[in-house]
Amino acid sequence: xxxxxxxxxxxxxxxxxxxxxxxxxxxxxxxxxxxxxxxxxxxxxxxxxxxxxxxxxxxxxxxxxxxxxxxxxxxxxxxxxxxxxxxxxxxxxxxxxxxxxxxxxxxxxxxxxxxxxxxxxxxxxxxxxxxxxxxxxxxxxxxxxxxxxxxxxxxxxx
Length: 158
Description:
The protein is of the alpha+beta class. It has helices at residues 14-25, 31-38, 42-54, 87-95, 121-132, and strands at 74-82, 100-105, 112-118, 138-145. 34% of the residues lie in helices and 19% in strands.
């Protein structure tokens, strides 16, 4: 089996799941507070969190910024059809752009699905015409502007 694609089947017990749930709700919660909630020591919590991190169950700890609070008011989703031989280079170019918040290789007629945030419609239009359409291998782009967000996946709940 190719180790690059091997994902070990890691068993999470009730305590691991409870720790993950608490961290998902508040990633700034202290190990001491988690220990008090669950009934184990701070050291035991730290050991379990480190193990979850080392095994790739916790990918990273990060800060989620509200785009509107920093002047990014336009949120848009793009389906980008790419010539197959340019898929990797287009994906790498888009992944490096700060306006692109997520990028996925999808099945179906569109090869790449991405999300971007922009200050206004003019910035989004500039991104489309000066960046996205200018990338070699991009065949077509379908753009949809977000009207209202009801739920966003930030991490995964167990």
